[in-house]
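Write out the 3D structure for:
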Amino acid sequence: MREIERSAQSVEEAVEAALAELGVSEQEALVQVVQEPKGGFLGVGSQPAVVRVRVVEPGGDAGRRETPTDPALEDQADLVADFVEDLLERIGLAADIEISEADGATYVDVWAADTEESIGLLIGRHGATLDGVQDLVRRMVLHQTGERCRVLVDVEDYRKRRRTQVARMARDVGARVRRSGREEALEPMNANERKVVHVTVASFGGLESGSVGEAPSRRVVIRPAG
């Protein structure tokens, strides 16, 4: 059984780093938040996020925890759905809310009830607004349950389409790196998208990946395994 701890400025970045090193997806691991990040005054008293990630074999605890019939995950999805519905009512956006499963992840989907243009405001440029909503949801779930949020908020399938694009991009770049033997950096991405790249690269032989830079310019570099 493999288990490591990693720290970073945010929980998601720490999880990303741990999963990349272990070479597994989030659905193949158990993630425990050891310490939430805290900002200090002028950097004094600040603390990073610390997570402990453990790889669990198929059929073990991770498989039970991530299934759609997991009561804790179902409760978390309902909590997020209620939160998003209340948020949309407060800002005056009409939308339908659904809970779904895709690619081993649980989503709270937001669908336009009138025009897609108005609901598109929730996505923002390069998904920036949607990432902000996700951060609100993450904090709310942690405050309400004491657990790390395992539910993703999506708008008009933006995250699912983006996941497919990122995986395809990682495969294309990975193939070029294998042919050329030279590392390549991908475009800046958020932590969830970078995790998709790491998992995709892990399926290649002879390649490795790592993240460089600071958000929002943080990106993944794919290189030959050394």
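The chain has seven helices and nine strands.
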